[in-house]
Each structure stands twice: as structure tokens, then as C-alpha cells.
Automatic annotation (TrEMBL):
This is Membrane-bound lysozyme-inhibitor of c-type lysozyme. InterPro entries: MliC (IPR018660), MliC_sf (IPR036328). It comes from the Bacteria. It holds the Pfam family MliC.
Amino acid sequence: MRLLLTTPPIVFWSLVILSLPSCSTQHQNPALQPSSPDSSVITQQTYYYNCPGSPDIPVSIKDDVAWIFLPGKTINLPHVRSGSGAKYSDGINTFWSKGEEAYFQTETGKIPNCRNNRRLAIWEHAKLTGVDFRAVGNEPGWMLELRPYYINYMGDYGETRQTFVRPEPESDREERQTVFRVDNGSDRMTIILKGKECFDTMSGEKYETTVIIRQYGNRLQGCGKALH
């Protein structure tokens, strides 16, 4: 357990996010859709490339096919042989990565010197695998995902994992908050989403929603945002 506690938060979440169950995806392409709410998304890898002088480019790889989300369109490229790194190409468009670096060739030209942003890739992966809302908190590290039919919670740096059927929420417009009261027969939890800006206690990043979790007399607070 000591290894988990000393692992940097961004690296930790990038390792555990792939193990969560999924039930849908924002994109309607069946190649990116898990087969059932309980199916694993381990085989799907997501990257989020920052490219100097160009818009950011998310990439999702599954079953030897790379889905490239370019501004205004999405293309899929088959895996091809390369001397080094991982290369995907249809003869016109190319995505070639090595480590955290990547190069793109499209109909409009070359996009070199792109670098994967691990933190944003985690959020993009959640979005592409059907998460409606995602929240995180620190000390101890925890993560919450609201999917169309399920709610996944991971706490204590990954030691605690709980899944609940997503119930109808209790909404209060005057208080600008939404409450989910969940019970899976073994665990109970109250989740409160407040329409109040929130700043991550480690990164300082600003989020649109303050999230409070109450369970067994404990209170956790973190930040989250809608992904769809």
C-alpha cells in the first residue's frame, strides 16, 4: 500500500481509470462502445495531445485502430508496421507516436511535436467511455464517476471500490444542488453536487462544481465537472 501512497496523483489516476466498468460512450461509433455496463475498458487507451500552433488532438486506440478527433471531424486509422513507436495510417492521414510524443499528417498538412497531456487524457478517457460527470478529491485520493445507469466510487487511493445503481436525483434549484442517495445493499453513500466553483487543493485547477460525499460519518470534499 505504501507504493500507492507515494505515487504522484496524476500517474495514480492514469493507472486506475482504465479498470472502471463502462456502459456507454459519447460517440456513436460501435468500435468505441463497451459491450455491456459491466464490461472492462482496459483495451481502450486514450491520449490527449497538446500540439504547438494547433488545436489539441484527443486520440483513442482500441483493437489496433486509432480514432483521431480532429477539429470538425473524426478519422480512424489502422495500425501499420513501423521501425519504432506506434504508427497508424490510411495512406493519406498518419498518426505516429513514440512515448509521450506524437506526429500527425493530415490532408491539410503536418502537425509535429505534439505531447500527451496525461491529466487531460484521464478526463478525456472518462468522457469517451460514457461518464456523464466526474469528480476527484485529495487526502485521501478519491474519484467519483456518474454514468447513465451506474455510479462508480474509488477511494483511499484505490483501496475502496464501490458501484451503485444510479437513482433519480433530488434537485434543489434555490440551493443550486443535486443529491444522490445510493445503497447497493452493502454500502450506502450520499453524494451532493453544488453549483459552486471549486479549486483543486493540489493543482489549483478551477472546476464548476463542488462535490461532497458523506459515508459512515466521514465527509469528503472535492471538485468535478460535467463531461457531456
